[in-house]
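Quick start: load a record and inspect it. Here is Pirin family protein:
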Amino acid sequence: MSNLDRQATLSVCGGRGFVVAEPVRELLSPRTVKLGESTEVRRLLPNLGRRMVGAWAFVDHYGPDDIADEPGMQVPPHPHMGLQTVSWLHEGEVLHRDSLGSLQTVRPRELGLMTSGRAISHSEESPRPHARLLHGAQLWVALPDAHRHTEPHFQHHADLPTVTAPGLKATVILGELDGAASPGTIYTPLVGADLTLTAGADLALPLDPDFEYAVLSMSGEAHVDGVPVLPGSMLYLGCGRTELPLRAASDAALMLLGGEPFEEEIVMWWNFIGRSQADIEEAREEWMSGARFGEVKGYDGERLSAPALPPVALKARGRVR
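Running the structure step on this input writes:
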Protein backbone atom coordinates (compact mmCIF):
# COMPACT_ATOMS: atom_id res chain seq x y z
CA MET A 1 0.00 0.00 0.00
CA SER A 2 1.12 3.51 -0.71
CA ASN A 3 1.71 6.38 1.64
CA LEU A 4 -0.49 8.94 -0.15
CA ASP A 5 0.32 11.83 2.20
CA ARG A 6 1.15 14.78 -0.08
CA GLN A 7 3.12 16.37 2.76
CA ALA A 8 5.46 13.39 3.14
CA THR A 9 8.34 14.14 5.48
CA LEU A 10 11.84 12.76 5.66
CA SER A 11 12.68 10.89 8.86
CA VAL A 12 15.50 8.76 10.17
CA CYS A 13 14.45 5.77 12.26
CA GLY A 14 16.00 2.69 13.77
CA GLY A 15 19.02 2.12 15.96
CA ARG A 16 18.93 0.77 19.51
CA GLY A 17 19.41 4.09 21.27
CA PHE A 18 15.74 4.55 22.18
CA VAL A 19 14.63 0.95 22.62
CA VAL A 20 12.77 0.44 25.87
CA ALA A 21 14.65 -2.44 27.50
CA GLU A 22 11.93 -3.32 29.99
CA PRO A 23 8.17 -3.88 29.79
CA VAL A 24 6.12 -0.71 29.35
CA ARG A 25 2.52 0.18 28.50
CA GLU A 26 2.62 3.08 26.02
CA LEU A 27 -0.69 3.70 24.25
CA LEU A 28 -0.26 5.09 20.73
CA SER A 29 -3.09 7.07 19.14
CA PRO A 30 -3.51 7.11 15.36
CA ARG A 31 -3.73 9.99 12.93
CA THR A 32 -6.27 9.86 10.10
CA VAL A 33 -5.00 9.78 6.52
CA LYS A 34 -6.97 9.70 3.27
CA LEU A 35 -6.00 6.76 1.06
CA GLY A 36 -7.06 6.85 -2.57
CA GLU A 37 -10.57 7.86 -3.59
CA SER A 38 -12.69 6.58 -0.72
CA THR A 39 -10.62 4.82 1.94
CA GLU A 40 -9.64 6.51 5.21
CA VAL A 41 -6.97 4.87 7.37
CA ARG A 42 -5.70 5.24 10.91
CA ARG A 43 -1.89 5.49 10.90
CA LEU A 44 -0.17 4.00 13.99
CA LEU A 45 3.42 3.87 12.71
CA PRO A 46 5.33 6.06 12.25
CA ASN A 47 3.82 7.78 15.27
CA LEU A 48 4.55 11.04 17.06
CA GLY A 49 5.90 9.01 19.95
CA ARG A 50 7.44 5.98 18.25
CA ARG A 51 8.64 5.17 14.76
CA MET A 52 9.43 1.43 14.71
CA VAL A 53 8.68 -1.83 16.53
CA GLY A 54 11.43 -4.26 15.61
CA ALA A 55 11.62 -4.03 11.80
CA TRP A 56 7.93 -3.01 11.57
CA ALA A 57 8.10 0.56 10.29
CA PHE A 58 4.60 1.40 9.03
CA VAL A 59 1.14 0.37 10.24
CA ASP A 60 -2.22 1.48 8.82
CA HIS A 61 -5.57 0.19 10.12
CA TYR A 62 -8.72 0.75 8.04
CA GLY A 63 -12.40 -0.10 8.34
CA PRO A 64 -14.67 -1.75 8.81
CA ASP A 65 -16.08 0.39 5.98
CA ASP A 66 -19.34 -0.19 4.13
CA ILE A 67 -18.28 0.01 0.47
CA ALA A 68 -21.35 -1.64 -1.07
CA ASP A 69 -22.04 1.51 -3.13
CA GLU A 70 -18.44 2.74 -3.23
CA PRO A 71 -15.40 1.83 -5.33
CA GLY A 72 -13.62 0.74 -2.15
CA MET A 73 -9.84 0.64 -2.12
CA GLN A 74 -8.36 2.26 -5.21
CA VAL A 75 -4.59 2.78 -4.88
CA PRO A 76 -2.97 3.51 -8.28
CA PRO A 77 0.45 2.13 -9.31
CA HIS A 78 3.20 3.46 -7.06
CA PRO A 79 6.80 2.48 -6.21
CA HIS A 80 8.50 0.84 -3.22
CA MET A 81 12.10 0.13 -2.30
CA GLY A 82 13.94 -1.18 0.75
CA LEU A 83 10.91 -2.77 2.43
CA GLN A 84 8.29 -5.50 2.50
CA THR A 85 4.56 -4.78 2.38
CA VAL A 86 2.14 -6.99 4.32
CA SER A 87 -1.54 -7.03 3.35
CA TRP A 88 -3.83 -8.41 6.07
CA LEU A 89 -7.62 -8.49 5.85
CA HIS A 90 -10.44 -9.31 8.24
CA GLU A 91 -13.19 -8.50 5.74
CA GLY A 92 -13.29 -7.87 2.00
CA GLU A 93 -10.76 -8.53 -0.75
CA VAL A 94 -7.86 -6.63 -2.28
CA LEU A 95 -6.64 -7.21 -5.85
CA HIS A 96 -2.85 -6.89 -6.05
CA ARG A 97 -1.01 -6.15 -9.32
CA ASP A 98 2.71 -5.47 -9.59
CA SER A 99 5.50 -4.78 -12.07
CA LEU A 100 6.60 -8.44 -11.93
CA GLY A 101 3.28 -9.43 -13.53
CA SER A 102 1.71 -10.74 -10.30
CA LEU A 103 -2.10 -10.69 -10.20
CA GLN A 104 -3.55 -11.94 -6.92
CA THR A 105 -6.73 -11.44 -4.92
CA VAL A 106 -5.94 -11.40 -1.20
CA ARG A 107 -8.79 -12.52 1.06
CA PRO A 108 -9.35 -12.47 4.85
CA ARG A 109 -6.61 -14.16 6.91
CA GLU A 110 -4.44 -14.72 3.82
CA LEU A 111 -0.93 -13.30 3.62
CA GLY A 112 -0.02 -11.00 0.74
CA LEU A 113 3.71 -10.32 1.13
CA MET A 114 5.58 -8.14 -1.36
CA THR A 115 9.34 -7.74 -1.02
CA SER A 116 10.34 -4.62 -2.90
CA GLY A 117 14.10 -5.07 -2.57
CA ARG A 118 15.85 -2.65 -4.91
CA ALA A 119 12.64 -1.60 -6.71
CA ILE A 120 9.06 -2.62 -7.48
CA SER A 121 5.75 -0.93 -8.25
CA HIS A 122 2.23 -2.17 -7.57
CA SER A 123 -1.43 -1.21 -7.32
CA GLU A 124 -4.17 -2.30 -4.93
CA GLU A 125 -7.90 -2.14 -5.52
CA SER A 126 -11.18 -3.63 -4.38
CA PRO A 127 -12.35 -6.13 -7.02
CA ARG A 128 -15.49 -5.44 -9.05
CA PRO A 129 -17.90 -6.63 -7.79
CA HIS A 130 -16.68 -6.66 -4.19
CA ALA A 131 -17.88 -7.56 -0.72
CA ARG A 132 -19.92 -5.06 1.28
CA LEU A 133 -17.33 -4.51 4.04
CA LEU A 134 -13.62 -3.72 3.91
CA HIS A 135 -11.53 -4.09 7.07
CA GLY A 136 -7.83 -4.73 7.46
CA ALA A 137 -4.29 -3.51 8.03
CA GLN A 138 -1.38 -2.63 5.80
CA LEU A 139 2.12 -2.87 7.23
CA TRP A 140 5.72 -2.39 6.13
CA VAL A 141 8.80 -4.24 7.30
CA ALA A 142 12.15 -2.49 6.83
CA LEU A 143 14.79 -4.57 5.05
CA PRO A 144 18.27 -4.64 6.61
CA ASP A 145 21.11 -3.17 4.58
CA ALA A 146 22.39 -6.62 3.55
CA HIS A 147 19.08 -7.40 1.81
CA ARG A 148 17.63 -4.07 0.74
CA HIS A 149 18.91 -4.48 -2.84
CA THR A 150 17.56 -8.02 -3.23
CA GLU A 151 15.48 -8.93 -6.28
CA PRO A 152 11.80 -8.05 -5.79
CA HIS A 153 9.25 -10.85 -5.35
CA PHE A 154 5.66 -11.44 -4.27
CA GLN A 155 4.29 -14.23 -2.08
CA HIS A 156 0.72 -15.27 -1.35
CA HIS A 157 -0.03 -17.80 1.41
CA ALA A 158 -3.65 -18.80 1.97
CA ASP A 159 -2.87 -21.43 4.61
CA LEU A 160 -1.01 -20.15 7.65
CA PRO A 161 -0.08 -21.97 10.89
CA THR A 162 -2.10 -21.35 14.04
CA VAL A 163 -1.59 -21.52 17.79
CA THR A 164 -4.62 -22.28 19.95
CA ALA A 165 -5.48 -22.02 23.63
CA PRO A 166 -8.79 -21.73 25.50
CA GLY A 167 -10.42 -18.59 24.08
CA LEU A 168 -7.61 -17.91 21.59
CA LYS A 169 -6.76 -18.64 17.98
CA ALA A 170 -3.50 -17.05 16.84
CA THR A 171 -2.66 -17.06 13.12
CA VAL A 172 1.08 -16.61 12.51
CA ILE A 173 1.43 -14.06 9.71
CA LEU A 174 5.23 -13.70 9.73
CA GLY A 175 8.00 -15.15 11.84
CA GLU A 176 7.39 -17.61 14.66
CA LEU A 177 5.07 -17.75 17.67
CA ASP A 178 5.09 -20.52 20.27
CA GLY A 179 6.79 -22.93 17.86
CA ALA A 180 4.54 -22.22 14.84
CA ALA A 181 6.36 -20.62 11.89
CA SER A 182 4.89 -18.70 8.95
CA PRO A 183 6.01 -19.65 5.41
CA GLY A 184 6.49 -15.97 4.59
CA THR A 185 10.09 -14.90 3.92
CA ILE A 186 11.66 -12.62 6.53
CA TYR A 187 15.06 -10.95 6.73
CA THR A 188 15.25 -10.02 10.43
CA PRO A 189 14.00 -11.83 13.56
CA LEU A 190 10.38 -10.72 13.96
CA VAL A 191 6.82 -11.89 14.48
CA GLY A 192 3.40 -10.83 13.28
CA ALA A 193 0.30 -12.68 14.48
CA ASP A 194 -3.47 -12.24 14.26
CA LEU A 195 -5.10 -12.96 17.63
CA THR A 196 -8.79 -13.90 17.74
CA LEU A 197 -10.20 -13.86 21.28
CA THR A 198 -13.62 -15.09 22.38
CA ALA A 199 -15.63 -13.26 25.04
CA GLY A 200 -14.36 -14.14 28.50
CA ALA A 201 -10.91 -15.26 27.31
CA ASP A 202 -8.24 -14.79 30.00
CA LEU A 203 -4.78 -16.12 29.18
CA ALA A 204 -1.06 -15.37 28.86
CA LEU A 205 0.63 -15.53 25.46
CA PRO A 206 4.31 -16.64 25.45
CA LEU A 207 6.77 -14.03 24.16
CA ASP A 208 10.49 -13.72 23.40
CA PRO A 209 12.13 -11.40 25.98
CA ASP A 210 14.68 -10.22 23.38
CA PHE A 211 11.91 -8.82 21.16
CA GLU A 212 10.10 -5.52 21.52
CA TYR A 213 6.34 -5.75 20.97
CA ALA A 214 3.19 -3.80 20.23
CA VAL A 215 -0.45 -4.84 19.95
CA LEU A 216 -2.88 -3.28 17.48
CA SER A 217 -6.60 -3.60 18.27
CA MET A 218 -8.67 -4.50 15.21
CA SER A 219 -12.09 -4.97 16.83
CA GLY A 220 -13.91 -5.74 20.08
CA GLU A 221 -13.07 -5.06 23.73
CA ALA A 222 -9.77 -6.43 24.99
CA HIS A 223 -7.32 -5.69 27.80
CA VAL A 224 -3.63 -6.12 27.02
CA ASP A 225 -1.52 -6.45 30.17
CA GLY A 226 -4.39 -4.78 32.01
CA VAL A 227 -4.71 -1.86 29.58
CA PRO A 228 -7.95 -1.46 27.59
CA VAL A 229 -6.99 -1.12 23.91
CA LEU A 230 -9.75 0.25 21.67
CA PRO A 231 -10.07 -0.63 17.96
CA GLY A 232 -7.72 1.47 15.87
CA SER A 233 -5.22 2.09 18.68
CA MET A 234 -1.93 0.36 19.46
CA LEU A 235 -0.18 -0.42 22.74
CA TYR A 236 3.64 -0.42 22.71
CA LEU A 237 4.98 -2.96 25.22
CA GLY A 238 8.79 -2.61 25.17
CA CYS A 239 11.18 -5.56 25.66
CA GLY A 240 11.88 -8.04 28.44
CA ARG A 241 8.55 -9.89 28.43
CA THR A 242 8.26 -13.68 28.59
CA GLU A 243 4.45 -13.60 28.40
CA LEU A 244 1.61 -11.21 27.67
CA PRO A 245 -1.64 -11.25 29.68
CA LEU A 246 -4.74 -10.95 27.47
CA ARG A 247 -8.37 -10.63 28.54
CA ALA A 248 -11.44 -10.14 26.34
CA ALA A 249 -14.70 -8.58 27.52
CA SER A 250 -16.27 -9.42 24.15
CA ASP A 251 -15.19 -11.24 21.02
CA ALA A 252 -12.10 -9.32 19.94
CA ALA A 253 -9.31 -9.31 17.37
CA LEU A 254 -5.76 -8.04 17.87
CA MET A 255 -2.52 -8.00 15.89
CA LEU A 256 0.71 -8.78 17.72
CA LEU A 257 3.79 -7.15 16.15
CA GLY A 258 7.30 -7.70 17.44
CA GLY A 259 10.92 -8.28 16.65
CA GLU A 260 14.50 -7.70 17.62
CA PRO A 261 15.11 -3.95 17.83
CA PHE A 262 16.30 -2.83 14.39
CA GLU A 263 20.03 -2.07 14.57
CA GLU A 264 20.27 0.29 11.60
CA GLU A 265 19.11 3.83 11.13
CA ILE A 266 16.87 4.20 8.08
CA VAL A 267 15.51 7.09 6.07
CA MET A 268 11.81 6.69 5.26
CA TRP A 269 10.05 9.05 2.88
CA TRP A 270 6.86 8.51 0.88
CA ASN A 271 7.08 4.84 -0.24
CA PHE A 272 10.84 4.47 -0.01
CA ILE A 273 13.21 3.26 2.71
CA GLY A 274 16.90 4.05 2.24
CA ARG A 275 19.95 4.93 4.28
CA SER A 276 20.52 8.51 3.15
CA GLN A 277 18.73 11.45 1.61
CA ALA A 278 20.66 10.71 -1.60
CA ASP A 279 19.02 7.25 -1.73
CA ILE A 280 15.60 8.86 -1.54
CA GLU A 281 16.36 11.57 -4.09
CA GLU A 282 17.65 8.99 -6.58
CA ALA A 283 14.62 6.74 -6.12
CA ARG A 284 12.19 9.65 -6.58
CA GLU A 285 13.96 10.79 -9.76
CA GLU A 286 13.94 7.27 -11.22
CA TRP A 287 10.24 6.79 -10.45
CA MET A 288 9.35 10.10 -12.10
CA SER A 289 11.52 9.33 -15.16
CA GLY A 290 10.01 5.86 -15.61
CA ALA A 291 13.21 3.95 -14.88
CA ARG A 292 13.96 1.14 -12.42
CA PHE A 293 10.52 0.46 -10.93
CA GLY A 294 8.89 -1.23 -13.91
CA GLU A 295 5.29 -1.00 -15.10
CA VAL A 296 2.05 -2.24 -13.57
CA LYS A 297 -0.14 -3.53 -16.38
CA GLY A 298 -3.92 -3.85 -16.21
CA TYR A 299 -4.76 -1.06 -13.77
CA ASP A 300 -7.45 1.26 -15.12
CA GLY A 301 -5.93 4.63 -14.34
CA GLU A 302 -2.77 6.70 -14.13
CA ARG A 303 0.10 5.92 -11.82
CA LEU A 304 0.89 8.14 -8.84
CA SER A 305 3.35 10.99 -9.05
CA ALA A 306 5.81 11.43 -6.21
CA PRO A 307 5.35 14.45 -3.94
CA ALA A 308 8.02 17.13 -3.90
CA LEU A 309 10.96 16.60 -1.60
CA PRO A 310 11.13 18.98 1.37
CA PRO A 311 13.50 21.92 0.99
CA VAL A 312 15.32 21.22 4.28
CA ALA A 313 18.20 18.83 4.85
CA LEU A 314 17.54 15.52 6.57
CA LYS A 315 18.19 15.41 10.32
CA ALA A 316 18.62 12.17 12.22
CA ARG A 317 15.96 11.75 14.90
CA GLY A 318 16.26 8.11 15.98
CA ARG A 319 13.46 5.70 16.87
CA VAL A 320 11.34 8.20 18.81
CA ARG A 321 10.73 11.92 18.67
